[in-house]
Amino acid sequence: MSTLPEAPGSLAEHLKRPVEYRSYLPGLAVFEREIRRFFKVPAQTILGPLGSSLLYFAIFKYSVGRLAESAGAQGQSISQGIDYLQFLIPGIMTMEAINASIQNPMSSIMISKWTGTVVDQLMAPLKPLDMWFAYISGAAVRAFLVAAMAWVAGSLFAWQFSMNQVLLLLFCIFITSAIFGSLGIAAGVMCKDWDQIGLILTFVLQPLVFLSGVFFSFSGLPESISWLPYLNPVYYLVSLYRYSVVGIIDIELWKALLFVMGMAGVSCMISLRIITKGKGMRS
């Protein structure tokens, strides 16, 4: 009995090709593992950021928000002339997206090193670029989820759903994942224990985020120190998120875009170089 010929491009025909034609499959497996990993512990990776966002909105709405309202025009300078809660929403979105982007690959690599499963990954036919892209893609998915939930939570608190530029917001989430996902990869490979990870998160990342304009505007700073925010790279991201959500920005849009794209290029090249060398992956 004769069998029907396989359709061109069918899965069976595709799997019969040489390995190089299916070189993307190991990277796809790593990406799938990253997605499954943070969905396995939603209380920590998804619900945790949502809970912290709700706390921030509740605390700042009934503290700083009321002070800004009672102070009148002077208090409005804190939020660039708009409702304080509306001003706070994109800042919290930025903070949660950054935390998700850096923690996802960093914790994944550290757990692999700690459990010894990193050896299986190193022995697989996995190119450094595929590994890097898989980690960044997993970080982007997690960053999108937590940023979206922060936006919904804040909008429910404010009883107003604002969105100025959807495509720009998606670009912001992608560029955040590229920058801080790459930094998370580099930290995960280079750090030898969880104490070093904690030092990076506590004494480097947290001050940068908290002093980036997440909770207040820098537009009211004295002219003599008005240059200080420009030294903080996270300030440019917060400005882009705020413009994409509520339509206000205290820096030229093109400057913020150029800076974050340059920062993404540098951080991506550094992390890809670290993965390619492989030093620290077995420790």
Descriptive terms for the model:
single chain, mainly alpha, 71% helix, disordered N terminus
Write the layout of secondary structure elements.
Elements: H1 11-15, H2 24-40, H3 42-45, H4 47-61, H5 64-70, H6 73-76, H7 84-115, H8 118-123, H9 128-158, H10 166-190, H11 194-210, H12 233-246, H13 253-277
Helix pairs in contact: 2-9, 4-7, 4-9, 7-9, 7-10, 7-11, 7-12, 9-10, 9-13, 10-12, 10-13, 12-13
Describe the structure in brief.
With 283 residues, the chain is mostly helical. It is 71% helix and 0% strand.
Describe this structure in words.
It is a single chain. With 283 residues, this protein is mainly α. The chain has one domain. Helix 7 packs antiparallel against helix 9 and helix 7 crosses helix 12. The longest helix is centred in the middle third of the chain and has 32 residues. The radius of gyration is 22 Å and the shape is globular. The N terminus is likely disordered.
